[in-house]
Design a protein that fits this description.
This protein is of the alpha+beta class and 318 residues long. 28% of the residues lie in helices and 27% in strands. The structure holds zinc ion (ZN).
Amino acid sequence: MDYFKEFAPNFYSAAPVDRLWHRRADQEWLEAALRNPHTRFLPVWQAKNLVTPDQEPHPLELTAAQVANAVCDTGTLVLLGDWNNRIYFAVDLATNGSTAPARFAELGRFRDLRVLGPLLDHREAALLAYARAITYWHGQNRFCGTCGAATKSAHAGHMRTCTNEGCAKEHFPRTDPAIIVLITCGASCLLGRQPQWPEKMYSTIAGFVEPGESLEDAVMREASEETGIHIKQLCYRSSQPWPFPCSIMLGFRAEAANHEIQLKDQELEDARWFSRDEIETALRGGHLRLPTAVSIAYRLIEEWFNEEHSEGLHSLLR
Ligand SMILES: [Zn+2]
């Protein structure tokens, strides 16, 4: 099997940078990189990325001169890495205040990647996802979970250390694992909807992995809790970083052992079995919406749907 063909990278994954892990503690190299006129900075403010104001946006890549004071005053720098022989840093701006720092807002727009993502080139989206996820982690880890003292950024933004010398605990970036699974029974698949979702939208079953669980345990538990479905077989498909705010989605296909749906934990307001014909009819009639095409949820549905549909799911969305 050609693994990389079968598992082509999901959107937001495969950020194009060489992460330069070996430079993160190299102060001399870092200082030179910050002075280098070719180095570029990607500001993040309140989890929003700075992009060009056009209809086809791109990340707004700033020079050291353009970010200088912000970095000294309020920012935390994170070395993202090297892309095409250019060094990139994320700039974590202060999270306080309801308006974006004026000097940056004049240059472009701070936008939510969740909305912006599908408009971007996949490499740019992956780079901004990386910047957003790691700056979010900084914002959530300003104090030590062990002793409560302030922490400070280290290793070019890839670690935070506790400032209490008696503690000195090192904190590393974390991402929260969540499973997402397309469950099938015969020629149908199971889709559910949460009450807060847009009208008519249905998606795959998903949930966070709990401490002490394997991924397989989590798939079986979530399926049972949310829909009363027991799993008799499952296989891993692919994964997707999901920086909303800090997850990685681990995608599975599973086969149900029973057909009867019971909404046990009330997380879903509805769950149903859909055949391919029912999905096609509902999409054509405007009675069904699927998750955004850049999500792994969509990919899991599409992969299953296209196994027995000549035109493919994508043709029905146009
Ligand atoms: Zn501490």
